[in-house]
Each structure stands twice: as C-alpha cells, then as structure tokens.
Amino acid sequence: MGERKVVLVDPGGRIGADLLALELPRWRFQVVDSLAAAQKALSQAMPQIGLIVFDRKRPLPTDELEALLARHDTEWLALFEEGFEAAARLPSRLLRSFHDFHSSPFDRDRLEVMLGHAWGKLQLLHQNGPPVAIEASYGMVGQSAPMRQLYRKIAKIVAVDAPVLIGGESGSGKELVARAIHRYSGRADGPFIAMNCGGISPSLIHSELFGYERGAFTGASQRKVGNIEAASCGVLFLDEIGDLPLEMQSSLLRVLQDRTITRVGGTERVQVDVRVIAATHVDLVRAVAEGRFREDLLYRLNVVGLKLPALRERVEDIPLLAQQMFEECRSKGSPVRGFSSAAMSALMAHSWPGNVRELRNRIHHALVMSDHRLLTPEDLGLAEAASAEPPTLEALRASVERELIETSLKKCRNNVSATARQLGVSRVTLYRMIDRLKIVL
Hints:
Layout lengths: L3 E6 L5 H8 L4 E6 L2 H8 L5 E7 L7 H8 L4 E7 L11 H4 L2 E6 L4 H19 L18 H13 L6 E4 L6 H10 L8 E5 L5 H9 E2 L11 E2 L1 H4 L4 E5 L6 H13 L1 E3 L6 E3 L3 E6 L3 H6 L5 H7 L2 E4 L10 H12 L8 E2 L1 H9 L5 H15 L4 E2 L7 H4 L5 H20 L4 H8 L3 H10 L5
C-alpha cells in the first residue's frame, strides 16, 4: 500500500512536528502555514486529505477558509488545539464541510482511523470517474449515515409525482422533509398546504379538507375553498394522518382515486391536481390490524415510504444541528458565544425523546436565560447527562466507525482485505476494529 499525501494547515507551526513524531505509516504530511499555501499544495495532485489546525491565537480568514473547503476533490479534517468548544466559534456552514474532528491531546490510533476513513471515502467518490459533490442535503442539517441515506431517497422521490408516507417519531422533522420534497420537485411553483389531522375537531375536518358552498350550514355566508382544492398544482401535507377519522379516510381515498372533490353543500365535482404527502408517528400497519385505519388508504399513501431517523440514531449530527440552532436563536447583543465542552457532551449524551424539536427548545431556552459566555449543561437542563460516564464522544466515534465498516463490508461482499484497502487501514487493524465494535461478519 503506497503513501497517501496529507496537507496540514498549521498556522501556529506547533502541530506539524507533533504529528510527524507519531510516525504514522503510509501517511506523508506536507505542512503549510497558510490557506493560500494549502490551495497551491492541493492543486498539484488529487484526491487528497486536508487537515486544518484551529488556533484561537491565529484565526483563519473566513472567506479564504470557505473557498478552500469548497474543493470537492479533498476530504477535510479539523484539529482543535483547545478542545471542541472551539468548534462553536465556526459557522455551521463551515462545520458541515469537515468529515471528522479531533482535539488535543492527539491520539495516534484515533488519527490513523480518521485518516483511513477520509481516504476510503475519497476512493468511493472517485471510483466511478471524476470527483463529484456529496449528495445535496435539501436544506437539512446532518451528514450521518442515516441522513445521507435519507438524502438519496429524497433525490429519487422528487423525480416522481406519487403520494409519500413519512414515518418517524414526534419532533423528528417530518414537515421539514415534506417541504423539501415540495421545494425540489416539479411542483415547487405550486402551493404547499399543511394540515394537522389531529389538531382539528372531527366535526370540522370535512369542511377544512373539502371546503363548502355558501349556505351549506348555519354561518356559511360565503364559499370557502378547502385545503385539497387550495393545494391544487402543489402539495397537500397531512400531518398525523393516523388521527384522521375513519369516515374521512374513505373520502380521502376517493380523492386519491378520482382526483375530484365535492364541496360541502355542493353538487359540482371539482377536478384537483394535488400531490399528497402524509406523515405519522404511529404504526399504521398495527392501526390497520386494530381497525383504526383503512388498509386500502395505507396502500394508496405508501407508494413511496420514508422513515426518518430519531435524533438518538444520528448523534454525530448533534454538533452541527446545535450550532445552526444556536445561530438561528441567538439574539443580537447576546453575551453567549457558544457551547462549553461539557454542554456539548451533555447534548450528545441525552436520549432526546422529543428529537430535533426538543433540541431547538432547549437551546432557545438556554440562550434566553443564560448569563454565561459559553452555555453550560445546567443552562440546557441537562446537568445529570453531563456527568454521565463514559463520555459520549467515544460512543459517537464507535457509531460512526461501525456504520462505515458495515457499509464497506457490504460493498466488498464481506471481503476483509478489500474492505481494509477501501478504508485505508491494514487487515490487522480492521480485524481489531471489527472485534472491538462487535461487528458480525
């Protein structure tokens, strides 16, 4: 296995010598002291790996950094000299450009695994031709394996015009995904009408969906267009579809079959051209078995199905999500500048029963109430989680490593030698990782 080149951007000039002293086999480091020098070094060959050292005393120009990170022929790793709290000072759009992160004191085995993973990813991106950008994230935040799989599915869904059923726990972002499908589909110029089926009285839900004619009932002084008709040429998003009354399920099924509606109190059949995206946090298959949901409607809605991962299933996305929410919720003039390392550990240790919605709520509350420069676990209401052992960073790393190894093993049909070459590690190292992570071959 030949040498792999790594360009190390070390403005302070202190880290390069430390890394060279680690004597990592198969890796050749080219140390530069500026972003401009890194651009020049990286233009000489590809694919390559870039490591950027972040030193508080020597901040890097944001515009130059953004231009450098935009290179699609390079995988980027970040090294923080003063712990992970330094990441809070970087904009989330820049954090999303890094494949992995490490902080001092630097661990030889951890660095070798990081480099191997980045190299393996480069090989996957380059194996079928010229370098290509990582798949679009459709306005969402996250580069974990579950989220990348979700983006790939969305890319297929936006190309067709079939109904979609989105499953996932409360707060996991089902409406966000529905809006992304609308925004990137052929119906982007049409309306997006959202309706919570569980938030409307059963006596009103029919008129909300189908509308009504003037005089249809007491108080109907003029015609009202229902949500189905209002969404024509666009998307109707029905949240908590499992709460839709059975009699309304029959009516919705007829709309999906006939593409027509009749307003309450009317006789005219109105043609509608609408894509229905439904969402639920309940098991609709069980609801069918229990007689609470129509099986034929489930089949009609579930032409394309999506299952959103819970936040606890993509822990590695929490730093990116937290930083984006911090920037969105932080008011002008706030004294808070970021997250302490203890706060970030607490965020990654929490089980998140309320998912992304709970994460945003905790961060927003902490920003309003905190008097600290860096948010603490207590500010986030997660003091107990902060003291939990072991540190969640190890669990996060294990999760990332397990996912990458299992994916590579599947691609290589469980050939350990081929998988090791793809990941950029030796067979012995890979066997050791397989044993440590309890991966079944």
